[in-house]
Amino acid sequence: MQATVSDLQSKFHKAKPTFYPSRQRFSLPLKAGEKKATSLAAGKKLSDYDVKDGSVLIFKDLGPQIGYSTVFFWEYFGPLVVYALFYFLPSVFYPTYKNIPDKHPVQTMAVAYWSFHYAKRIFETFFVHRFSHGTMPLTNLFKNCGYYWGFAAFVSYFVNHPLYTAPSTEVAYILFGIAMLCQFANLTTHVIQRNLRPPGGKGYAIPRGFGFDYITCANYTFEIYGWILFAAATWTLPALIFITAGAAQMAIWAKAKHARLRKIFDGKDGRAKYPKRWIMLPPFF
C-alpha cells in the first residue's frame, strides 16, 4: 500500500504535536520558471508528486485552524441577534428619545426579512453546504464576525431609528415579496451546488439548471438582487452600502471561480467545454 500525504501529516503530527494535520502544508520546492510551489493535497499518494525517500519538501505552519461550519455559524448567528436588538429594544439604543413611535410595517418587514436570511444561512451551513476544506485560519472567525456583526448594527441602527421615515408601505410589500423569491431561489442554487459534489468529494463539475445555465455564480445573483430589493424597500443608505460591499467581494470570488471552471473544462483531451455564461450579475457582469 502506497503512502499518502495524509500519512505524512499524521506522522509529522506525532513527531510535532503542535502541528495537527489541518495546520500543515507541505509543498514541493520551486523549480526553475515556476512562480508558485505545488502543494501536496491530503489524501493523494506521495507517488503522485514523485515524492520518495530522500525527497525535500517545504513545510509551512498555517497557524491555528477552526472548522468552516463553526465560523459560518457565528458569523451568521451574530447578525440574527444584533439586528433584532435594535428593533426590540429601542429604549436601550436610542436613550435620548423619550417618545419612541410604534414600529412601522416597513421596519417589521425588514427585521423579518433579515432574520429569515440569516436563519436560512445557518440552516444551509449544517444541512446543505459541503465544504471542500475542513478548516480555515482562526483569524477568519474574528474578521468575518466583525464584518457581518458590524454591518448588522450599522443597518439596523438606521432602519429602526425613531426618526426613520419609511417609504410607501405598498411598494415595500411588493419589493420584499420579490426579495423573498430571491431568497428561495438562492436556497435552490445552493442545493444544486451541494448535489454537484458527493460527500467527501473535492472535484469540480459544471453546474446546470435554475440560473446556472446562464450564470456561473447564480447563487450570488439571487442574493445580490435580494439585498438590492431590501435596500430599495427600506430606502436606506446603510443597506445600500452593505450590499455594495458584499457584491464587491462576491464579484472577486465569482470572477476567480469562472476563470477556474473555464480552465478546468477547456474542451481538450475529452474534457467538456465550459459554456459561455454571465459571471455573476447579468446584464452587467
UniProtKB/TrEMBL annotation:
It comes from the Eukaryota. It holds the Pfam family Steroid_dh. InterPro entries: 3-oxo-5_a-steroid_4-DH_C, SRD5A/TECR. GO terms for biological process: very long-chain fatty acid biosynthetic process. Its main location: membrane. One of its GO terms (molecular function) is oxidoreductase activity, acting on the CH-CH group of donors. The chain crosses the membrane at residues 66-89, 146-164, 171-192, 224-253. Residues 135-284 form the 3-oxo-5-alpha-steroid 4-dehydrogenase C-terminal domain. Keywords: Lipid biosynthesis, Lipid metabolism, Membrane, Oxidoreductase, Transmembrane, Transmembrane helix. It is a multi-pass membrane protein. GO terms for cellular component: membrane. It is found in: Membrane. Belongs to the steroid 5-alpha reductase family. This is 3-oxo-5-alpha-steroid 4-dehydrogenase C-terminal domain-containing protein. It comes from Coccomyxa subellipsoidea (strain C-169) (Green microalga). The lineage of its organism: Eukaryota, Viridiplantae, Chlorophyta, core chlorophytes, Trebouxiophyceae.
